[in-house]
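FAQ

Q: What does a record look like?
A: Structure on top, sequence underneath. For example:
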């Protein structure tokens, strides 16, 4: 063992003893447990002014080397999954699928159970259940089943096939069809947005392996994979066609006149199962792409188009399914497919009578951070005009939060009704997955005709893939998943310093999304406003974002939210007139400010992943956030020349 590892091991052994000299009994407080975890991750041989990430998180991977999670958010997801697995361990069905009277908890259990019973994914089953049309098989599947049969190409229509697959939430081939809120006119109204897709086809070797698994002969599979990639190259050229007009609303009637070769009205009728009037408006992007696409497809063999769509659909289903059908994989799959039911169950089973206490405490933190940011706005560092300031204050005042992404009026009857048409087949995971994908797509499209819910009854139809809070621009709303209301992020009995480290910082980060470059243009009701747009051109705002863009990042809005979030969370806690408890805690000798920064770091600790979706890497985010923050450099006495010190600090608001 080298000297560094020996000293680290000794420190990890001694730190808990030094910090908890009088701790007795088996049940340590939530604060003591958090301190023990934090200190176990610290690498004391690293100077915090040289690299705060390595200092605060250097031993995270060692401590969790045998775990199934790789960072703090996946740790919290793991804990949620474990709770739900334990809940269903001895679950007894309340109804029966034969009688059609299953409760929503029955359906959760049955879907989990069918997932656990599945040994491996059978892609062929999906393609048997969902075909291009009711009277047409996939070309390659027919070839596998009947090698000498002739595939009836005249029956194939690529647009109608995509319409059918869109009912299973598939939107990745030729057309990107999503629903958006109308932020230019009415943030309660949904629009169908039609655009070119952005995802790319998998590598040739992946496609060939997929086709071989489906039963295609090896040489043929390799040949088809090459054909599909050549076809993809042609499609990528089309995607590079410039969009001169941007997104525009247009009636189906005018779209028909402008693009008669693409029967959009019939496509949407097949997706929705009802007919939209000709004056119904959709939003379309990249018109020239669609015109060029139609010409390319007219001169492409229907069998090649069919194979392309089939492969992309199969890849979509693979990505959407459980990974290995372990307990954890299956529970994660249940959470993604039946998010509303899981959230309601989680609230009922694991919060119960303490729900009001959590809500009140979250509301306290939410209101205090908004008050602190409001004071910053009043100081008007950016020299905004009075009407611009009023615009921002109004938006901040109207901002709301939703715990658990549930409508306020949700009860068991509401949840049961939501899943009324779902009858889980206890022996067919593939069929159940398709059934739930279809439900998700239908519920999403139901929003086109449903009356707008009250603000308190709004919930976001998501893919259930986030355990951290997120901000919805068109609703001026912060969603706080139940998974985030647990240690290490939060506990109602945590000291305020501990709460503000992860939970307070992340919550404030989300609030700040309403005031960064992408978010500031929306008003308090979620509509794009000229006053918000005018702030984008103010000198101080522009210079602040130009400063933050160095070093270069593709996630400037996220960096700005980090930049502001740390300051507002810190000042909410440590402001001389703050009502929060920022005094030295009795459970540790770590000073309050250092304790706050160590807690903030916990959100970023983990085994650094090769890619980060819409964010810089976690170590980069932590370093950039703290080196720009004067309070941090003062607390740790960082000096010019230290890596965690910058001479020129950026400023916003």
């Amino acid at each position: 063992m080298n000297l560094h590892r020996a000293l680290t091991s000794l420190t990890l052994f001694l730190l808990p003893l030094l910090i908890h000299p009088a701790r007795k009994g088996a049940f340590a407080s939530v604060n003591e447990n958090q301190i023990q975890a934090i200190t176990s991750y610290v690498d004391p041989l690293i100077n915090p002014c040289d690299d705060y990430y390595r200092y605060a998180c250097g031993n995270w991977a060692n401590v969790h080397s045998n775990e199934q999670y790789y960072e703090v958010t996946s740790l919290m997801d793991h804990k949620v999954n474990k709770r739900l697995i334990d809940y269903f361990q001895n679950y007894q069905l309340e109804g029966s699928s034969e009688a059609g009277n299953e409760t929503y908890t029955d359906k959760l259990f049955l879907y989990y159970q069918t997932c656990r019973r599945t040994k491996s994914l059978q892609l062929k089953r999906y393609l048997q259940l969902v075909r291009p049309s009711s009277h047409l098989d996939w070309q390659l599947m027919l070839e596998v089943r009947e090698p000498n049969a002739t595939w009836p190409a005249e029956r194939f229509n690529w647009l109608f096939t995509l319409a059918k697959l869109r009912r299973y939430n598939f939107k990745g081939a030729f057309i990107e069809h999503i629903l958006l809120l109308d932020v230019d006119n009415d943030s309660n109204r949904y629009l169908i947005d039609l655009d070119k897709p952005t995802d790319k086809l998998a590598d040739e070797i992946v496609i060939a392996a997929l086709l071989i698994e489906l039963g295609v002969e090896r040489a043929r599979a390799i040949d088809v994979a090459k054909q599909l990639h050549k076809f993809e190259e042609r499609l990528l050229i089309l995607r590079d066609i410039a969009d001169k007009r941007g997104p525009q609303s247009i009636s189906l009637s005018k779209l028909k006149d402008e693009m008669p070769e693409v029967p959009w009205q019939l496509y949407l009728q097949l997706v929705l199962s009802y007919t939209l009037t000709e004056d119904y408006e959709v939003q379309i992007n990249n018109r020239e792409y669609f015109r060029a696409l139609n010409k390319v497809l007219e001169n492409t063999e229907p069998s090649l188009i069919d194979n392309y769509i089939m492969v992309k659909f199969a890849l979509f289903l693979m990505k959407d399914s459980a990974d290995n059908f372990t307990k954890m994989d299956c529970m994660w799959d249940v959470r993604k497919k039946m998010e509303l039911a899981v959230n309601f169950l989680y609230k009922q089973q694991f919060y119960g009578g303490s729900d009001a206490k959590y809500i009140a405490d979250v509301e306290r933190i939410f209101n205090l951070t908004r008050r602190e940011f409001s004071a910053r706005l009043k100081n008007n560092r950016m020299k905004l005009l009075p009407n611009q300031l009023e615009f921002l204050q109004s938006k901040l005042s109207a901002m709301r939060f939703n715990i658990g992404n549930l409508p306020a009026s949700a009860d068991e009857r509401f949840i049961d009704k939501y899943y009324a048409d779902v009858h889980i087949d206890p022996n067919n995971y593939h069929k159940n997955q398709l059934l739930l994908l279809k439900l998700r797509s239908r519920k999403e499209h139901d929003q086109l005709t449903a009356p707008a819910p009250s603000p308190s009854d709004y919930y976001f139809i998501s893919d259930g893939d986030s355990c951290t809070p997120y901000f919805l621009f068109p609703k001026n709303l912060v969603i706080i998943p139940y998974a985030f209301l647990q240690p290490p992020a939060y506990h109602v009995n945590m000291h305020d310093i501990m709460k503000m480290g992860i939970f307070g910082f992340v919550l404030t980060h989300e609030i700040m999304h309403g005031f960064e470059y992408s978010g500031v243009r929306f008003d308090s009701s979620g509509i794009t406003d000229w006053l918000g747009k005018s702030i984008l051109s103010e000198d101080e705002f522009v210079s602040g974002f130009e400063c933050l863009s160095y070093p270069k990042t593709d996630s400037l809005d996220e960096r700005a939210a980090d930049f502001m979030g740390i300051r507002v969370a810190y000042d909410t806690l440590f402001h001389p007139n703050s009502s929060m408890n920022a005094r030295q805690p009795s459970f540790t000798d770590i000073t309050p400010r250092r304790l706050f920064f160590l807690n903030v770091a916990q959100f970023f600790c983990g085994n650094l992943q090769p890619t980060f979706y819409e964010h810089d890497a976690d170590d980069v985010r932590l370093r950039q956030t703290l080196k720009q923050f004067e309070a941090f450099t003062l607390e740790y006495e960082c000096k010019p020349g230290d890596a965690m010190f910058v001479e020129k600090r950026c400023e916003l608001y």
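Q: Is there anything notable about this one?
A: Residues 1-15+29-90+368-400+484-653 form a domain with the Collagenase (Catalytic Domain) fold (CATH 3.40.390.10).
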